[in-house]
Amino acid sequence: MSEFKISKRLCTAASYVRDGAVVADIGTDHAYLPIYLTLNGKVKGAYASDINKGPIDRANENIKKYGLENKIITRVISGLDDIEKYSPTDIVICGMGGELIIKILENSPYIRQNHMRLILQPMTHVELVREYLQNGFYAIAENVVFEDEKIYQVLCLQYDGCFHCLTKVEQELGKINIENHTREFELLLNSTIAKNQKRLDGLRLGGQDTSEIENYIQELEKLR
To answer: DSSP string of 94-154?
Structure first.
């Protein structure tokens, strides 16, 4: 096993990549994820892309440092453009806003193939990502990661072409996360309740209708 270390957040994402996969890391930055997976012999091919040249230059330096020039392909490219050329089975997008992730996925018909796996770590609006992907994808695994005083959600989804209806609470917190109810999930739940309570207070000050958000907070409270 390689001594190459990555963050807890990326390590969680890496754990969802299938053995023998061809992995595509979109918005790769330093290429830490494909380097980690390749050094550990988990994947048979790796592709790393970013929309900017600077991150790919850094990625190439790291790839060269570990002698992986012939094993990891890098490209300066937008999102999933031309991804079909590399035939990835597992696509990883970490560290982007949820709305940008949705835009990238919307522009790629390639992702809607049987058994295609998406591994996502949205920095914002995870609920919008789940809402969008419930049409065609189902969650295989989810996790809540607490790192550097921040809370992250990591999602692993697979395409089956079916509609998987999620409640508002499940879209925000994750059905599997709710079932597992880890210590990290409790941190996420408390943070979500506090965020919605702040919204409620703002609506009350503005004299607006608060019934919807009050009901939502009650649903969240039931999960404590």
So the answer is: EEE-HHHHHHHHHT-GGG-STT-EEEEEESS-HHHHHHHHTEEEEEEEEEEEEETTEEEEE
Say what the pTM is: 0.95
The pLDDT tens digits for 182-224 are: 999 999 999 999 999 999 999 999 999 999 999 999 999 999 9
Give kind and range of the element (H or E) at residue 219. Answer: helix 211-221
Paired sense of beta strands 135-147 and 150-163, if any: antiparallel
Report yes or no: 164 and 134 within 8 Å, Cβ to Cβ.
Answer: yes
Q: Let me know: does 101 contact 131? Beta carbons within 8 Å.
A: no
Backbone angles phi, psi at 59, to 5 degrees: -60, -45
- pLDDT at position 2 is 58
Tokens of 149: 């005083």
Token pair listed for 189: 């739940």
Q: What does the alpha-carbon distance between residue 145 and residue 21 come to, in Å, rounded to a whole number?
A: 24
Q: How confident is the model over 39-72, as pLDDT tens digits?
A: 999 999 999 999 999 999 999 999 999 999 999 9
Contacts of the segment 174-181: beta carbons below 8 A, 24+ positions apart: 174/126, 174/130, 174/139, 174/142, 174/144, 175/139, 175/142, 176/139, 176/141, 176/142, 177/142, 177/143, 177/144, 177/153, 178/223, 180/142, 181/223
Q: From CA 103, how far away is CA 153, in angstroms rounded?
A: 19
Hunting for tokens 């990290």 — which residue is that? 184
- Within a 10 A sphere around the Cβ of 28, how many other Cβ atoms? 28
Q: Are 153 and 174 in contact (CB under 8 A)?
A: yes
